[in-house]
Specification:
By secondary structure, this protein is α/β, with parallel strands linked by helices. It is built from 7 helices and 5 strands, in the order βαβααβααβαβα. The chain binds thymidine-5'-phosphate.
Length: 204
């Protein structure tokens, strides 16, 4: 792979961590495609609406499977073709969100959810993951819009999610960059771009 090889970057973290802002900066830096999970495709937009904004309570495994269905379609119809064309991809969330939210938060088990997702994405996990870590107690004032079904969960749920993300990152330090989301935006961007460039050269 040449040094300007296409890279698959994902942003993870709790809601209100500023990941969408930072994702846009990486997109500009790489000339990448910006996408998100759930909802990066027309089918995914329907799934996103059903899972995040439906009135009916959703069974946890149904929730995990719907996220995985969104992801399988997203990977094969958008992410992989884009990477194959030589263009990088930056995604606001990835399969790692399912490990944290459904595996840990919903209590389905991180390994069980990993297995399902590994099949859904046929082993194509992001090359670089940036975790914008935020204490759930601090997210209140950062969320200034209406909340989705997951965002409305209790603080304990969000603490489990956070700690699962930190565990995933600690287990795979080459792939993950963990940053304190309360730091200044410019400072965060500089570190993120440095990490992405390093990962990209390592993949080459
Ligand atoms: P977002 O608005 O930050 O994109 O997040 C969408 C919501 O969906 C957020 O509450 C986290 C949740 N989510 C999961 O529970 N599992 C997943 O696999 C993904 C991708 C998101």
């Amino acid at each position: 792979m040449p040094s300007d090889a296409a890279i698959y970057v994902a942003f993870e973290g709790g809601e209100g961590s500023g990941k969408s802002t930072q994702a846009k900066r990486v997109v500009e830096h790489l000339g990448a495609l910006l996408t998100r999970e759930p909802g990066g495709t027309p089918l995914g937009a329907g799934i996103r609406e059903l899972v995040l904004h439906g009135d009916e309570p959703v069974d946890p495994w149904a929730e995990a499977m719907l996220m995985a269905a969104d992801r399988a379609h997203h990977l094969s119809t958008l992410v992989e073709p884009t990477l194959a064309s030589g263009r990088s991809v930056v995604s606001d969330r990835s399969a790692f969100s399912s490990l944290a939210y459904q595996g840990a938060g919903r209590g389905l088990g991180v390994e069980a959810v990993r297995e399902v997702n590994d099949r859904a994405i046929r082993g194509r996990w992001p090359d670089a993951v940036i975790l914008l870590d935020l204490d759930p107690d601090q997210r209140g004032h950062r969320l200034n819009r209406s909340l989705d079904r997951l965002e409305r969960e209790a603080d304990e749920f969000h603490r489990l999610v956070r700690s699962a993300f930190l565990d995933l990152a600690a287990a795979d330090p080459d792939r993950w960059l963990v940053l304190d989301a309360t730091r200044g935006r410019g400072e965060l961007t500089a570190e993120i771009l440095g990490f992405v460039d390093e990962r990209r050269s390592a993949l080459a």
